[in-house]
Amino acid sequence: MSSPSEVAFITYINNVSAQINQYLSIFIFLFGTVGNILNILVLSQRSFRSNSCATLFLGSSIANFIAIITGLTTRMLSGWAVDLTNTNRVLCKLRAFVLNVARPVALWLILLAGIDRWLLSSPNIRYRQMSSLKNAQRSIIITLILSILLFSHIIYCYEPNLINAPLKCYGVTITCRLATDLSLMFMTIFFPLLFMLIFGLMTINNVRYSRNRTRPGDISMITMQGPPSTSRTTEQQQRNKIDDQLLMMLLVQVLLLFIFALPLGVQKLYSTITTNRVSSQAQVAIDNFAYNFVLLLNFIANGMPFYIYTLVGGNVFRKELQKMFATARQKICRL
Length: 335
Description:
The chain is mainly α. The chain has one domain (4-211, 230-334): Rhodopsin 7-helix transmembrane proteins (Rhopdopsin 7-helix transmembrane proteins, Up-down Bundle). Helix content is 82%, strand content 1%. The chain contains 13 helices and 2 strands, in the order H-H-H-H-H-H-H-E-E-H-H-H-H-H-H. A two-stranded antiparallel sheet has the order 1-2. The termini are far apart.
C-alpha cells in the first residue's frame, strides 16, 4: 500500500503532466499549424514547383500539418471537453492510424530531401540526373504506401478506455505495443535520423569536392571560349542559389530533428527494455510523465520547419513569403 507522501507525489506528477499536456499543446498547436500552412502556401509557389527538394519539403509540411491536427487537437481540448478518441473505438483507431502514418512520412520525406541534395551535388552525372521532380513525386507516393503498410496493425491493436497505459487509447496487448514502439523507434526515428546524418555529411563532402575542383585555370578556359548567354547565366545562378539555400535549410532541420525527435526514440527504447519490469505506481506516473513530455517535443519537430526556412532559407524563401503576403493584401483591398 502506498504511503501518504507517495500518493501526494503521484498526484503531483499526474497534475503536472495534465497541465503540460493541456497548455503546452495549445502553444505547439498554434505555432505548428500556422507555420505548416504558410510553408505549404510558400512551397506551392511557381519558383519552387519545379524543384525536387522543395517538392519533398512540401510533402513533409503537409504530413506535419496532419500529424499536429490529429495528435494535438484532442490533447489541447482535454481539459475543457471529453476526448472522444479515448472512449470511442472507431475514433481511437482512426486517430492513432492517421497520426502514426503521418509521422514517418514527414520524417522520411526530409530524409529523401537529403538524398536528393546528395544526388544533385554528386560529381557523377548519372546520380545528378536522378535528382528530378518526377522521382520526387514517385518517392512521396511510395513513402505514403510503405508508411500505411508499416502501421496497418494499429487498426487491429489500438483500443480505447485503457487504464494501465501511457494513453487511454493505446495498444491493448504487450505484443501490439512492442510492434508499434519498435516500428516508431527504429523506422520513424533512429534509422531516418542516422541516414540523414550520413547523407548530410556526404553532401557536404560533395560540395567541398566540387568547389576544390574549380580552379583559376578552369575559369580562364571558360573566358577564352566566350561569355555565356546572359539569360541562361542568370537563370542558372538563380537555380544554384535556390539549391544552396535549400541545402542549408535541410542541414539545420536535420540538426533540430536530432534534438526534438530523438528523445521519443530513447523513451521508446527504454519502454521496450522495461516491458516486463514490475513497477510501482510512482514509477508508472514518472514514466507516463516522461512519455507525454517527449511526445510533445516530437510535435515541436512537426511544427518548426517554417521557422527554420524563414530564418536560414535566405532571400529566396523570404521573398516568396513577402510576395505571397503582398498578393493577398492586394486581393483583400480590391474586395
